[in-house]
Amino acid sequence: MSAWAEVASRKGRLFFKSYSKSGRALVFNGWVQAAEEPADDAAVGHLTRAALAESEPDVPWPDFRSGTTPEMRRLLDTVGVKTYGQYQGGAKQVSIELDDRKPGLMITPSRNEGRRGGFVALEDQAVTLSRDIDDAKLGAAVRAALAASE
Question: Which CATH number fits domain 3-148: 3.40.50.150, 3.40.50.920, 3.40.50.970, 3.40.1590.10?
Fold first, then answer.
């Protein structure tokens, strides 16, 4: 099974988010957990796996016509902000992908280009790890990718 997650670092907290597939696009599915820093590597790895476990392969496309979706509201409330632009301010973010067609877990840092540009993947800095890696090593790799994020 394929799975997708993101981990963001913002103002001394880590946010673990799960994504699901809707057609050919990924959508935030509303699963979010927060951890205060400093969190140990094993806890970071465990929450990253938990986010991946919440991914689903085929979900309906959200209805964006009425504004902020309930799923996005859950993220904003967890972070303590009113808009995604506020969330993005000062955040660093990495994506984690587990794909059955590719070996292992791919962890990709990003560059925060603000409200208009969003989080842009730094593909040349992506690393792939064994899917069987222990939580502490996964957490350390997520932290290294966050450190490489701009």
Answer: 3.40.1590.10
pTM to 2 decimals? 0.94
Q: What is the pLDDT along the chain (150 residues), one digit of tens a residue?
A: 789 999 999 999 999 999 999 988 999 999 999 999 999 999 999 999 999 999 998 898 888 888 889 999 999 999 999 999 999 998 999 999 998 787 899 999 999 999 889 999 999 999 999 999 999 999 999 999 999 999
| DSSP secondary structure of the chain | --EEEEEEEETTEEEEEEEEEETTEEEEEEEEEEEESS--HHHHHHHHHHHHHT--SS-PPP--TTSS-HHHHHHHHHHT-SSHHHHHTT-EEEEEEE-TTSSSEEEEEEEE-HHHH-EEE-GGG-EEE-TT--HHHHHHHHHHHHHH--
- Kindly tell me the sign of the dihedral angle through the C-alpha atoms of 48, 53, 57, 59: negative
